[in-house]
């Protein structure tokens, strides 16, 4: 299985270190919202590619892709863009080695787009982008019994 919690921690700690912003997983009921600026993220999908190959005693592996979406929320348009660019740079280059060392490969990073929202009493500036990550999913396989020899003549 993909250790999703470990990957979440790896990415959120790396982005927090480079941007100085708190990161929150989007769409969690009752989760506290930090002060501006902050970064929210969600995992849009996880897809596996057909085919497996043996990886030894740990089991079989299947390539997987995850699409993550990041949005920087803030009260200043230039600041949200700056943090968005720092985050994008981290995925494209400055955090690449850390991610690779933990089995996460950045396949692509999308453009920073405007995701602004008009709130009921004020304006919230938002800049965001999507990232596609390549991972390996360890398939949980039950051990099978191997028959070494068969003698059809004996009962």
Mean pLDDT across all amino acids: 89
Question: Nearest-angstrom radius of gyration?
Answer: 21 Å
Question: How many structural domains does the protein architecture include?
Answer: 1
Fraction in beta strands: 35-45%
Could you name the CATH topology? Answer: STM4215-like
| Helix/strand structural class | alpha+beta
Largest sheet: 8 strands, mixed
Shape: elongated
Count of runs of 4 or more consecutive helical residues? 3
User: What portion of residues is helical?
Assistant: 25-40%
Low-confidence stretches: none
CATH architecture descriptor name: 2-Layer Sandwich
From N to C, what is the helix and strand string? HEEEEHHEEEE
Instruction: Please count the beta strands (DSSP E, at least 2 residues each).
Output: 8
Measured between the Cα atoms of the first and last residue, the distance is 43 Å
> What's the CATH C level?
Alpha Beta
């Amino acid at each position: 299985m993909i250790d999703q919690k470990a990957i979440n921690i790896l990415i959120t700690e790396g982005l927090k270190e480079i941007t100085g912003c708190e990161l929150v997983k989007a769409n969690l009921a009752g989760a506290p919202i930090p002060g501006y600026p902050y970064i929210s993220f969600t995992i849009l999908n996880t897809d596996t590619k057909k085919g497996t190959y043996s990886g030894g005693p740990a089991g079989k592996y299947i390539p997987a892709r995850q699409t993550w979406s990041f949005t920087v929320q803030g009260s200043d348009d230039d600041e949200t863009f700056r943090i968005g660019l720092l985050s994008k740079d981290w995925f494209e280059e400055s955090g690449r080695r850390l991610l690779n060392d933990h089995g996460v490969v950045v396949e692509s990073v999308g453009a920073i787009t405007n995701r602004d929202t008009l709130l009921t009493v004020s304006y919230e500036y938002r800049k965001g982008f999507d990232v596609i990550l390549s991972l390996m999913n360890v398939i949980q396989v039950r051990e099978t019994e191997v028959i070494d020899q068969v003698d059809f003549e004996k009962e």
